[in-house]
Design a protein that fits this description.
The complex is a heterodimer.
Chain A lengths: L1 H40 L2 H9 L12 H19 L3 H5 L5 H34 L2 H30 L3 H17 L13 H13 L2 H9 L3
Helix pairs in contact in A: 1-3, 1-5, 3-5, 3-6, 5-6, 6-7, 6-8
Chain B lengths: L1 H27 L8 E5 L4 E5 L9 E3 L4 E2 L1 H7 L5 H6 L6 E2 L2 E2 L2 H7 L1 E6 L11 E2 L15 E5 L3 E5 L4 E2 L1 H13 L8 E4 L11 E4 L5 E7 L2 E6 L8 E6 L7 E7 L4 E5 L5 E4 L10 E6 L3 E8 L2 E8 L4 E8 L5 H10 L2 E4 L11 E4 L4 H17 L8 H10 L1 H10 L12
Antiparallel strand pairs in B: 1-2, 2-3, 3-4, 5-6, 7-20, 8-9, 9-10, 10-11, 12-13, 13-14, 14-15, 16-17, 17-18, 18-19, 20-21, 21-22, 22-23, 24-25
Helix pairs in contact in B: 1-6, 1-8, 1-9, 7-8, 8-9
Classes of the chains: A mainly alpha, B alpha+beta.
């Protein structure tokens, strides 16, 4: 049953994933060209100086890639089913509806995690050409909340999709938007060193929120 | 699971409400306020105050309640307003037997500022090492930057490879002078816009403080032999042509010391500071005296020292900030606040604050909440966590509850 569910999700997601990978590759290509040009026009020392002493973040072009990916994966996975109320079929399968919904969300998280890994690989690979290890370390910490905000965007979209009432959808939509923005509050490198645990905690709590509107969806409540 | 899910939804909604609504609400009550300026007048031998606030009534006055015009006030402070006094040809010839002229005033003027976020800022362990004994007037950019922890490592920026020669030279020089790796803390002024470079003060693993800089392309390492009872929290280095002090050293017990050029001898500044969070410190030196001004916890203090840093006089006054009233009002409506960013730190942190005054709102809201439950036939036992949340978060928790709605036993409400 779970294998079939995975296959169903894969059919829905493969086009979106392909599109997201293309967008990611293009963004990192632009980032690489910009960085290469900057180092050619200025000089490497000046760029290092701004990165380490002045706290400049040269890689912020990739900031919104993962929340955007979370948003697209959520839409591709849940909108087709909820718009035509097909999700109710899922809830009538011989699996507990929390488990089936949880499994669907797990598949989405898996693909999002895969995109995060691609992002980290490309980010570190490009930075490694021009910067020393300490800058790579800093980029890893600085971009972590940006990347995990993808999960907030993803679960926010699930909430909006499966909530049966229009009022609820509007509330969850606005709420998700502002929640995602919380992951982008800082403007300095390594600024999230003290708060990264709280961000993970927020994501952890947010995961559980999808089951309440799912139950309301199943019961057809407004 | 359903109850847990609903509660998680309310919690996340509450967090978002607290983070966004409370600061917006507070902004409504901000006031137009400027901090009064306290200065020590070498002419008057006392403190003079300038209060530019519209409702202050008096603008320029001294502690004996003498009031001055703006021009009279500026004439009392020739060390600050020497440019205007020079235009008015009103610069005093002598003060305390010392000749006063424009050039000397400019030469002896020094300002060192410390903002509280400097104590709590993320840093990247990559620093430039400028030539401190350069042939040129302008500080030249080096080819490499260094990292220090288990050893000191210089990395060439063009090749992104370790400069082994320079790294070994500095590591050896440090070890020869008794430096014990790994390093604990490093302090310096890594900007190139300064008259010369004094390098870095580095604390080794045994707590000893070393002065490290580049001199004629070779390492210069000196054990400062600075011994303190308390741990070093921060050192602000600021190079100045006068070479009176390297900078200000702050301990974790809020003690302030000047590190002098006299063999790194420390001079303790007799300041009374309970909390350095949110503090603004400025040290103004001129030809006659040194003045320390501190703004902290709605209080402004001014300490006047002679040239040997002996306290002449000090004065403090209450000066509530532009957001003081807003904070008080906000505390009533929002018992719990979460601030992610603040001027006290450059870290993003979930800084949670609870105010007891918030109970003035929480308790009536709870009464209203119970009436609402009764009216809508919700069971109180299904809403225990909601009660706690409203109690601790006030309006934010209540809004979150209204957004999600009450919990009902939904087994019998299936639509056809």
């Amino acid at each position: 049953m779970y294998k079939a569910l995975f296959y169903k999700e894969w059919i829905k997601l493969k086009a979106a994933l392909f599109l997201l990978i293309i967008i990611t590759l293009i963004t990192y290509l632009v980032f690489y060209i910009n960085l290469k040009t900057l180092i050619k026009v200025q000089d490497a020392y000046t760029i290092w100086y701004f990165a380490s002493v002045k706290g400049a973040i040269f890689y912020d072009i990739v900031k919104y890639l993962i929340p955007f990916s979370g948003f697209i994966i959520g839409i591709a996975q849940f909108f087709p089913e909820t718009m035509q109320r097909k999700l109710r079929l899922l809830f009538h399968l011989p699996i507990d509806h929390n488990k089936s919904l949880g499994f669907m969300a797990l598949i989405g998280c898996f693909f999002l995690f895969f995109l995060i890994l691609i992002n980290y690989f490309l980010l570190i690979f490009i930075l490694k050409i021009y910067f020393p290890f300490v800058i790579l370390q800093s980029a890893f910490i600085t971009s972590l909340p940006w990347f995990i905000s993808g999960f907030a965007a993803y679960f926010g979209i699930i909430l909006v999709s499966i909530e049966p009432s229009i009022k609820g959808r509007l509330i969850y939509g606005f709420h998700c938007f502002f929640l995602v923005l919380i992951f982008f509050k800082g403007t300095f490198p390594n600024m999230y060193e003290k708060s990264i645990g709280y961000y993970w905690l927020l994501i952890f709590i947010y995961i559980f929120t999808i089951f309440y509107p799912a139950f309301r969806f199943k019961r057809g409540l407004d | 699971m359903l109850k847990i899910s609903r509660f998680c939804l309310i919690v996340v909604l509450t967090i978002v409400f607290v983070i966004y609504i409370e600061p917006m609400f507070k902004k409504i009550f901000y006031e137009k306020k400027t901090d009064p300026s306290i200065n020590y007048s070498s002419v008057l031998k006392g403190f003079v105050i300038a209060d530019y606030n519209e409702n202050a009534g008096k603008k320029f006055y001294d502690l004996n309640n003498n009031f001055y015009s703006r021009i009279e006030y500026q004439k009392l402070l020739p060390m600050i307003y020497y440019r205007d006094l020079s235009i008015w040809k009103s610069l005093p010839q002598k003060i305390d037997g010392i000749d006063i002229n424009y050039k000397e005033l400019v030469k002896y003027k020094q300002i060192l500022r410390i903002k509280s976020h400097e104590f709590d800022s993320p840093e990247i362990n990559l620093y430039p090492m400028y030539e401190s004994d350069s042939l040129f007037s302008k500080i030249e950019n080096p080819d490499s930057m260094f990292t220090i922890k288990k050893s000191i490592k210089f990395i060439n920026a063009n090749s992104n490879k370790t400069d082994l020669n320079l790294s070994l030279k500095f590591t050896k020089a440090l070890q020869d002078n008794g430096f014990k790796f790994p390093s604990k803390q490093i302090f310096g002024n890594p900007v190139p816009k300064k008259p010369f470079d004094e390098g870095y003060f580095i604390e080794d693993s045994s707590g000893r403080l070393f002065h490290v800089k580049m001199k004629n392309n070779n390492p210069f390492v000196a054990d400062t032999k600075i011994k303190l009872k308390n741990k070093i929290k921060y050192i602000k280095i600021q190079e100045n042509e006068l070479k009176e002090y390297y900078g200000v050293l702050v301990t974790n017990k809020n003690e302030f010391f000047l590190i002098t050029y006299n063999n790194y001898e420390l001079i303790k500044l007799p300041l009374e500071i309970d909390n350095i969070k949110g503090m603004y410190f400025v040290l103004l030196s001129d030809i006659l005296k040194n003045v320390v001004k501190i703004k902290n916890n709605n209080q402004i203090s001014c300490y006047a020292f002679d040239k040997n840093y002996k306290l002449i006089d000090s004065y403090s006054m209450f000066a509530p900030g532009f957001d003081e009233k807003a904070k008080k009002i906000s505390n009533i409506f929002f018992p719990l606040t979460i601030s992610l960013v603040s001027s006290d730190t450059r870290y993003v942190d979930f800084d949670l604050n609870f105010s007891i005054y918030g109970l003035f709102t929480s308790i009536p809201l709870l009464i209203f909440f119970f009436l609402f439950l009764r009216l809508k036939n919700f069971k109180i036992r299904d809403h225990i966590f909601d009660c706690l949340l409203i109690f601790f978060t006030g309006i934010s928790g209540f809004f979150a509850f209204l957004a999600v709605g009450g919990f009902k036993n939904m087994k019998c409400t299936i639509k056809a």
